[in-house]
């Protein structure tokens, strides 16, 4: 379903002092992982987020990744690892990325913020809805993965997608994704995100591989 053209506007969701406190705690870079997980669980259980988040204009825009439920965010496998633990096509491009994060004693959200800037842009009100994931690497290089997106009234929390574009950009040079998406198994090239909590500034979503993603709205989208 393609939504009618629309712009992001602040929602009418009014945060209670408790919800505002929980969101603030989640978005602080020095918050321990276990505290983040407790706060996210309370936010999701509160049923205070926007109803039908995937159908709301507020889900659109650029979101910055703060935290994932996985303890080993692996830049080499942005589509998720295969069952044998290998990544679909990026191992040779980022041979030391996993070790760099594994060596950090900081919470994963701080490791992601310090080592990489990971953003997810959702555009549903355009003629061709898309989800774009961008990983900004030290030195100015960027990994960009683009996907065709869709939403459905019968699943108002879900954004479904299928990757159709990928490349690494470094200056004027662009290296295409090593494996053509048409050659990837459906389970690797397609997926979905169910949003469990959505406010003006914070989004908590779970992916089809079971990973929970905590994202804050980027300043550029405010």
From TrEMBL:
Domain Plastid lipid-associated protein/fibrillin conserved: 30-215
Cellular component, GO annotation: plastid
Matches recorded under InterPro entries: PAP (IPR039633), PAP/fibrillin_dom (IPR006843)
UniProt keyword terms in alphabetical order: Plastid, Signal
Signal peptide boundaries: 1-22
Localization terms from the record: Plastid
Main location: plastid
Protein's recorded name: Plastid lipid-associated protein/fibrillin conserved domain-containing protein
